[in-house]
Amino acid sequence: MSDSPQAEVLEQGVPGNILTRLQEAQEPYTGKKFFRFTLSEPGHVPRTNFKNVLSTMLIPPITDAYILQDNENVDYLYIRTVVLLNAGLGITNNDFIIKYNLSLYVTNNYQINIYVIFNQDDKASANNCLYYPIEIYFGQKSIFIDQTPPALDINSIGAINVFLVDTDPKTSRGTMTTVQKQHSKAQP
Q1: Can you tell which superkingdom this protein's organism belongs to (predicted)?
Q2: How far from chain centre, in Å, is Cα 138?
Q3: Model pLDDT for residues 124-145, shown as the tens digit of each residue
Q4: Kind of pairing, strands 20-21 and 33-37?
Q5: Where are the domains of the chain?
Q6: Distance of CA 43 to CAs 52, 65, 84, 101, 115, Å?
Q7: Cα–chain center distance at 119
Q8: Backbone angles phi, psi at 106, to 5 degrees
Q9: pTM for this structure?
Q10: pLDDT (tens digit per residue) in 103-119
Q11: Are 117 and 98 in contact (CB under 8 A)?
């Protein structure tokens, strides 16, 4: 369950399990799943000439995903996604909830669906964007099919689909990326 009534409203109608927000990534990752913002405040994107588009549409998140190894040589899934929103919305890092669920991918691997959820009360009028870089970690033995053991091998994840979900007016945009098997301790 959520900490606040606002968070409960954001969760309604969006499938999946809530990811915990942490300030710092902590190795080893085995059995852990969480997300963090890489900037304490959203970054500014230079002004654009797309004022009408930015005020009425959601832009699909930019995403990449890797299988990496922590300091104990255990594989974990590392996902980077960047959400772009109109600066006039006044959205902060604290206004997001992130949920996930599993589905079967076309190659008989699994796909993780990630939902970056926020609530946009008013139409924005600014002609510039803020970007919100988010890192998501799924450690080995942290994902279960139907919430029951045994844990899913992180290497059986073939794709990530990230959706940006505005709960009011219930719209979303998504982007899919394949998981790259890097098996390196270095961050991509």
Answers
A1: Bacteria
A2: 11
A3: 666 778 899 999 999 999 998 8
A4: parallel
A5: 5-181
A6: 21, 21, 10, 28, 21
A7: 15
A8: -60, -25
A9: 0.81
A10: 887 777 899 999 999 88
A11: yes
